[in-house]
Amino acid sequence: MNILIIYTYPNHQSFNDAILKVVQQNLSKDHNVNTLDLYEEQFDPILRFDDTHKRRDLSTVPDMEKYRNLITWADHIVFIYPIWWSGMPAMLKGFINRVFTAGFAYSYGKRGLIGHLQGKSAWIITTHNTPAFLTPFIQDYGKVLKNQVLKSCGIKPVTHTQLAGTENSSDEKRRRFLDKIANIAGSI
Ligand code: FAD
């Protein structure tokens, strides 16, 4: 299986980086794995359209072709990111805006969006500080990427692993979380 890991974190000295390494180390060697590190890539997350850059042409913008090709190549996409202000980092939001475009990732049908990315699945891994029992009652915390973005584009199943209390939990708890990630990655 072709697996694309999309890592969105400003550096490699973080708990998110520990998650990335655990995923990379535990995926079966039978898979083809590509890691897209949006900060390292210096991805430009700003979506622009104007008189010379038409909105209807977004799905064929040459700068984004590399990323469209990676999404097309992938059978399974793993997202790793921290929750910032209840949602995904602006860098990842910009990536979604610029790459998951109408005509490429979906089109408009009579009864809503038609997803073009059927046959792919995804795994979202997020970290945050809010206690776990509160997040079902708060908007987003990964739910937008799962339900509004990926599922709308035809990607399913989408699973979501959340680590609550990343900064204020014990080392032991964080170790258990990494073990859980290792087990899931190993089972893909
Ligand atoms: P780090 O800060 O890198 O590490 C967390 C802890 O894990 C540290 O104690 C570190 O020493 C330890 N650690 C590092 N590596 C390992 C390892 N290999 N094994 C074991 N332990 C390790 N949180 C919310 O709940 N809701 C919000 O809306 C929200 N908004 C935010 C907005 C902004 C702009 C920012 C910066 C933070 C926000 N946060 C929010 C908190 C954010 O979600 C957490 O800071 C983040 O998820 C922690 O992940 P990290 O990779 O940055 O952890």
What can you see in these coordinates?
By secondary structure, the protein is an alpha/beta fold. The protein has a five-stranded parallel beta sheet with strand order 2-1-3-6-7, with helices on both faces. It has a two-stranded antiparallel ribbon with strand order 4-5. It has five helices and seven strands, in the order E-H-E-H-E-H-E-E-E-H-E-H. Strand 6 (121-127), helix 4 (143-150) and strand 7 (158-163) form a beta-alpha-beta unit. The model has no long low-confidence stretch (mean pLDDT 96). The chain is globular and about 55 Å long. The chain has helices at residues 15-26, 65-73, 90-99, 143-150, 171-186, and strands spanning 2-7, 32-37, 76-82, 106-109, 112-115, 121-127, 158-163. The longest helix is centred in the C-terminal third of the chain and has 16 residues, at 171-186. Bound molecules: flavin-adenine dinucleotide. The site of flavin-adenine dinucleotide has 18 residues, from helix 1 and helix 5. Belongs to the NAD(P)H dehydrogenase (quinone) family.
Low-confidence stretches: none
Global mean pLDDT: 96
Hey, roughly how much beta strand do the residues contain? 15-25%
Order of helices and strands: EHEHEHEEEHEH
N→C terminal distance: 9 Å
Largest sheet features:
5 strands, parallel
Query: Strands across the major sheet, in which order?
Result: 2-1-3-6-7
Question: Helix count?
Answer: 5
Please provide the count of β strands. Answer: 7
Q: What structural class do helix, strand and pairing data support?
A: alpha/beta
Helical proportion?
A: 25-40%
Shape: globular
Bound molecules: flavin-adenine dinucleotide
Rg result? 17 Å
Domain Flavodoxin-like fold: 1-180
EC number: 1.-.-.-, 1.6.99.-
GO molecular function: oxidoreductase activity
Keywords: Oxidoreductase
